[in-house]
Amino acid sequence: MYISTHQALLDFCQRAREFDAIAVDTEFLRERTFHPRLCLVQIATPAESVAVDPLVIDDLSPLAELMADESVTKVFHACSQDMEVMLHTVGVLPRPIFDTQVAAAFLGERQQISYGALVQTFCGVSLPKTESLTDWSRRPLTDKQIEYAIDDVKYLIVAYTEMMSRLRELGRVDWVLDELRPLADESHYRADRHEAFRKVKRINSCSRHQLGIARELAAWREDRAERRNIPRKWVMSDDTLLALVKRNPVRVEEFRSIRGTDQLGERDVDGALMAIKRGASCPHDRLPLMVRGHRQISPELESVTDLMYALIRLVAERSGVATSVIASRDDLADYIEHPEQSPLREGWRFELVGSRLDDLLSGNMGLTVKDGKIELL
């Protein structure tokens, strides 16, 4: 069903609220805007599947009320971008949620399983991808496009039922819900513009002093892009931003000598120069530190983390929980140095592997090789 009127949306949302869970997906575009532009919302209940057209319905309040109804679980696959666009466009963050991509990692699948692979695994259906490059903002939509879009939720609600059954059998429903909790927090989708510099390409080549400049200049770029609702690269590319950071221009002519600044108006140049000046004058104790990628650790610590990681992989193999969901090598190094602050000391991770890590590090348990495979000793 294609829903293009407020009344049809209201009627469907009333029917949907009779169920404990519904599947939700979105189609959006963000190539020409700062915020994603919501073009279609697909929803499936166990009884019906619909495509809601937000580009032609002026009042989306019934959809907002459905998304906020905490008696109905909203099932997504890889939900972060869907949640972001719903929050920005509809004004509410869907709650409670269930993410099948996250859940699959607790059922023996890889951490970032695709939707197609998920449907194949849990529904036995192979989905076509003929409309994957569709411009969802163009109207009218064809029947084929609508059918393709609805496939993204029609099978999702079926997969959810099967996955919940398996999770209950394994006693892992609470594990998944714990892992999903941060994704239901609005702060997860409201980015701090003063952290935007960390996503600039090749920012790791900067000194701490230069990072101070990059923080202010990237924050200025975020503000301009959001105000105009255009992609940040249309204000200034990463390459231009990085060149400005490293040259630290003071005067307009110095600024203009850098390639990629010619499209900026006088007010933008003045604003960018002020941002650069703020960053350059930042006290040393307030300069940012880059978040490490792979941390540098001593050979001794590396050997210990190798042993711990072997245990993690063994537990992952036996439990069917993806290794990368349990812990990374950096997580293990942090565990050695600050175990009291580690996620491995809490919740399902401690239940699954935390106590075994303690036994391994205290010498109460070991690992050996038997028939070419690692075994507990």
From TrEMBL:
It is found in: Cytoplasm. SMART domains: 35EXOc, HRDC. Belongs to the RNase D family. One of its GO terms (molecular function) is ribonuclease D activity. Exonuclease involved in the 3' processing of various precursor tRNAs. Initiates hydrolysis at the 3'-terminus of an RNA molecule and releases 5'-mononucleotides. Its cofactor is a divalent metal cation. CDD domains: RNaseD_exo (cd06142). PROSITE patterns: HRDC. This is Ribonuclease D. PANTHER family: RIBONUCLEASE D. One of its GO terms (cellular component) is cytoplasm. Pfam families: DNA_pol_A_exo1, HRDC. The gene is rnd. Residues 207-286 form the HRDC domain. Its EC number is 3.1.13.5. It is an enzyme of class 3 (hydrolase). It comes from Collinsella aerofaciens. Its main location: cytoplasm. HAMAP family: RNase_D. InterPro entries: 3'-5'_exonuclease_dom, HRDC-like_sf, HRDC_dom, HRDC_dom_sf, RNase_D, RNase_D-like, RNaseH-like_sf, RNaseH_sf. One of its GO terms (biological process) is tRNA 3'-end processing. Keywords: Cytoplasm, Exonuclease, Hydrolase, Nuclease, tRNA processing. It catalyses: Exonucleolytic cleavage that removes extra residues from the 3'-terminus of tRNA to produce 5'-mononucleotides.
